[in-house]
Amino acid sequence: MLPDIMAAALNEQIKVEAESSQIYLAMASWAEVKGFEGIAAFMFKQSDEERLHMLKLLKYVNQRGGYAVVSALDEPRLDYSSFSVLFRQLYEHEVKVSASINNLVDIALTHKDYATHNFLQWYVSEQIEEEAQAKVILDKIDLIGDSKGGLYMFDNDMKNFTSQGHNIVQ
Ligand SMILES: [Fe+2]
Ligand SMILES: [Fe+2]
């Protein structure tokens, strides 16, 4: 049985992951309309991944005798004034998510919920990946600046970019 405080915190995280999915989806739609196919494809894929993060939590809460709540989501508020600004927000968002995962680990340990602690390890490693990936993309974008040719190539690279392989830095 999940401690109540743990169930509540995991439910909060369900919302965080669902909102992450919406954020990536909003960026995907923006990139698609702007004609950046590669960036859009990457964002759509990320959006799906965040939904899977959400589902995994939802199923875990229910499996442990809790009740996973599907709540209303905040609308993504994003500044699209430049790619650099946009990808910085993405990076900062992932850093924030890492902090909330760390907080969940903290609650699990404080309440001796070792099953949840074990479950959360997947999210800990996943966040290392996600933060690193967001940072690689941000560094790349900062390097390119407003160069049209650079952005064109960047968009092409993004088609091959996956969360596993950081082939964009090669
Ligand atoms: Fe996530
Ligand atoms: Fe993420």
What is the name of the CATH superfamily?
Ferritin, core subunit, four-helix bundle
Helix and strand run = HHHHH
* Annotation field: number of helices: 5
Mean pLDDT: 92
Report the sheet with the most strands, covering strand number, pairing sense and barrel closure.
Answer: none
Determine the N-to-C terminus distance: 47 Å
Rg (CA only): 17 Å
Q: Architecture in CATH?
A: Up-down Bundle
User: Hetero groups bound?
Assistant: fe (ii) ion
DSSP helix fraction:
over 70%
| Unreliable stretches | 163-170
Name the shape in a single word: elongated
Instruction: Domain count, please report it.
Output: 1
- Number of beta-strand segments: 0
Strand content: under 5%
CATH class: Mainly Alpha
Which class best fits the helix and strand makeup?
A: mainly alpha
CATH topology: Ferritin
InterPro entries: Ferritin, Ferritin-like, Ferritin-like_diiron, Ferritin-like_SF, Ferritin_DPS_dom, Ferritin_prok
EC number: 1.16.3.2
Domain Ferritin-like diiron: 1-145
Binding site for Fe cation: 17, 50, 53, 94, 127
What can you tell me about this protein's structure?
InterPro entries: Ferritin, Ferritin-like, Ferritin-like_diiron, Ferritin-like_SF, Ferritin_DPS_dom, Ferritin_prok. One of its GO terms (cellular component) is cytoplasm. Residues 1-145 form the Ferritin-like diiron domain. This is Ferritin. The chain has 170 residues and is an all-alpha fold. It has a single domain, classed as Ferritin, core subunit, four-helix bundle (Ferritin). The chain is 75% helix and 0% strand. It is built from five helices and no strands. The chain has helices at 4-34, 37-63, 83-110, 114-144, 148-158. It is elongated, with a radius of gyration of 17 Å. It binds fe (ii) ion (FE2) (2 copies). One fe (ii) ion (FE2) is lined by residues 20, 50, 94, 97, 130.
